[in-house]
C-alpha cells in the first residue's frame, strides 16, 4: 500500500482518468491498474500535481499538469457556453471560476507504471536543503556516491543509438567526440511554444556532469550552443535570444545533457541554485580549463536523498 506523506494528504477510491495508452504488451494503463485502491497527493507546485496510486500489489505515479493555453483556442474559450461561478466582485474587478468544455481544458498526464519505491520517494514532498560542495567534497563524497550507484541510463543510449525516439530527433551532429542529439523533452507536448523544452544529449559517454568539463570540451559545448539554437530557430521559429540554455548540477542523470527552454517558461530546475547557463560555462572554461575542478558549487537536495545523507554523515550539513 502506498504511504502518503506531506501536508494535507488524502485518499479516495478513484479509477485512472481515461484510457492512457502505452506501447507494447501493457495495452492501456487503465486496463492494467483499474483496481486502484487509493489515491494520495505526493506533492504539488503551481499547476503540477504529483499523485500516487495504489492497487493490489501495484503502484503508479501520475503527474498531472495544466497545459498552457493555446493562443488560437482562446476565442473559443471565451465564446463557448460554460459554467461561470462568481467568486468576488469589487468595483471594476471580478473573479470567476470557469468550467470550460473538455476540448479546451486539457491536462497532460505523465505516468510511471509500475512505479518502484524509488519513484515514489522521488515525487514525495520533502524538505529541501542547499548544499555547498567544494571540489574536495565532490571527490570525497559525491563522486564515490555516483560510482557506487547503479543509475540506469539505457534509455539515453537507446536515443543515441537510434533504438528509440528516432522520430522525435530535431537535430543531430553525429561526431562521436563533439556531436549530440537534440530531442523534445517529455515535459513538452509540442502543442504551443510557451513551454518549449528540448534537451541536447551528447554522444560522449565519459562526461557525467559539469564537474568533468574542461577546456577540452569547448568544441562540443560550442556545437551544442550554436547548432541547438539554429535547429530550434529553423524548426520552431524561436530565436536564440528567447531561449534559456543551461546545465543542471546536480543533474537528474549522469550523462552530460543540456536543457533548452523558452525564456519565459518557468521550467522545473531552471532556478539559480541548480541551473548553469551554457554560455557562462563556456566562458568560464575558456578563462580557466579547470574552473569546475576548483570552484564550490551550490545545489539543492531533498532530505530523503541518499546523497544528502552522505553529506550529513560527513558533517557538511
Sheet of most strands: 6 strands, antiparallel
Q: Provide the residue-averaged pLDDT.
A: 82
H/E topology pattern = HEEEHEEEHEHHEEEHEEEHEH
Low-confidence stretches: 1-27
Structural class: alpha+beta
Tally of DSSP β-strands: 14
Q: Strand share of the residues?
A: 25-35%
What is the radius of gyration? 22 Å
The percent range for helix content is: 10-25%
Keywords: Cytoplasm, Hydrolase, mRNA processing, Nucleus, Phosphoprotein
Function: Decapping scavenger enzyme that catalyzes the cleavage of a residual cap structure following the degradation of mRNAs by the 3'->5' exosome-mediated mRNA decay pathway.
Subcellular location: Cytoplasm; Nucleus
InterPro entries: DcpS/DCS2, Histidine_triad_CS, HIT-like_sf, Scavenger_mRNA_decap_enz_N
Give a quick set of tags describing it.
single chain, 317 residues, alpha+beta, HIT family, subunit A, 3 domains, six-stranded antiparallel beta sheet, four-stranded antiparallel beta sheet, 8 helices, globular, disordered N terminus, Scavenger_mRNA_decap_enz_N, HIT-like_sf, RNA 7-methylguanosine cap binding
Amino acid at each position: 500500500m502506498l504511504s502518503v506523506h506531506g501536508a494535507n494528504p488524502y485518499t479516495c477510491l478513484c479509477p485512472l482518468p481515461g484510457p492512457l495508452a502505452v506501447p507494447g504488451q501493457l495495452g492501456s494503463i487503465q486496463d492494467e491498474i483499474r483496481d486502484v485502491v487509493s489515491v494520495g497527493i505526493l506533492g504539488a507546485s503551481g499547476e503540477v500535481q504529483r499523485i500516487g496510486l495504489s492497487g493490489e500489489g501495484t503502484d503508479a505515479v501520475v503527474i498531472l499538469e495544466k497545459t498552457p493555453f493555446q493562443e488560437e483556442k482562446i476565442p473559443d474559450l471565451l465564446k463557448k457556453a460554460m459554467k461561470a461561478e462568481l467568486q468576488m466582485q469589487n468595483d471594476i474587478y471580478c473573479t470567476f471560476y470557469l468550467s470550460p468544455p473538455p476540448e479546451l481544458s486539457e491536462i497532460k498526464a505523465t505516468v510511471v507504471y509500475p512505479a518502484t519505491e524509488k519513484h515514489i520517494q522521488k515525487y514525495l514532498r520533502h524538505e529541501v536543503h542547499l548544499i555547498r560542495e567544494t571540489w574536495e567534497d565532490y571527490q570525497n563524497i559525491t563522486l564515490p556516491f555516483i560510482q557506487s550507484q547503479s543509475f540506469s541510463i539505457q534509455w539515453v543510449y537507446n536515443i543515441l543509438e537510434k533504438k528509440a525516439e528516432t522520430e522525435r530527433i530535431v537535430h543531430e551532429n553525429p561526431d562521436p567526440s563533439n556531436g549530440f542529439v537534440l530531442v523534445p523533452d517529455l515535459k513538452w507536448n509540442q502543442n504551443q511554444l510557451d513551454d518549449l523544452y528540448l534537451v541536447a544529449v551528447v554522444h560522449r559517454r565519459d562526461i557525467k556532469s559539469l564537474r568533468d568539463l574542461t577546456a577540452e570540451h569547448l568544441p562540443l559545448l560550442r556545437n551544442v550552443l550554436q547548432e541547438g539554437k539554429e535547429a530550434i530557430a529553423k524548426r520552431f521559429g524561436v530565436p536564440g535570444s528567447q531561449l534559456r540554455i543551461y546545465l543542471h548540477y546536480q543533474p537528474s542523470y549522469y550523462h552530460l545533457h543540456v536543457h533548452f527552454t523558452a525564456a519565459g517558461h518557468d521550467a522545473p530546475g531552471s532556478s539559480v541554485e541548480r541551473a548553469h547557463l551554457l554560455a557562462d560555462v563556456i566562458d568560464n572554461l575558456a578563462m580557466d580549463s579547470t574552473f569546475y575542478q576548483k570552484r564550490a558549487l551550490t545545489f539543492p537536495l531533498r532530505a530523503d536523498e541518499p546523497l544528502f545523507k552522505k553529506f550529513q554523515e560527513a558533517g557538511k550539513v
